Amino acid sequence: MKRYHINIFWSDADKSWIADVPDLKSCSAFGDTPAEALAEVEKAMEGWLAVAREDHLPIPKPRYRPAIYAAE
Questions:
Q1: Distance between terminal CA atoms of the chain?
Q2: Rounded to an integer, what distance in angstroms lies between the CA atom of residue 58 and that of residue 45?
Q3: Which of 12, 44, 63, 66 has the smallest count of CB within 10 Å of its CB?
Q4: Is the pTM here over 0.90, yes or no?
Q5: What is the C-alpha to C-alpha distance for residues 7 and 53, in angstroms, rounded to an integer?
Q6: How many Å apart are CA 25 and CA 59, to the nearest integer?
């Protein structure tokens, strides 16, 4: 699997940890811990990519870089 950036953050509104993949539109997951959110979003990524392949949709290249790394 390509190396996509994953953001993990706490959501007060959802009362859980959220993991999202900026390069894959609407690909996110949640969990009670950061590790659980990460495990769930990895499954979501696999599903997202499988559907894109099956439907012959474009699969984006990993591009997202957090602002902290953008200046390098």
A1: 25
A2: 14
A3: 12
A4: no
A5: 24
A6: 10
**C-alpha dihedral sign at 61, 63, 64, 69:** positive
Q: How far apart are CA 40 and CA 29, in angstroms?
A: 6
Distance CA 28, CA 11 (A): 13
Q: pLDDT tens digit string along 11-66?
A: 999 999 999 999 999 999 999 999 999 999 999 999 999 999 999 999 999 987 76
Residue with tokens 């659980």: 36
For 17, phi then psi, to 5°, come to -85, 135
Q: Which amino acid is at 32?
A: D
Q: In angstroms, how far is CA 45 from the centroid of its own chain?
A: 7
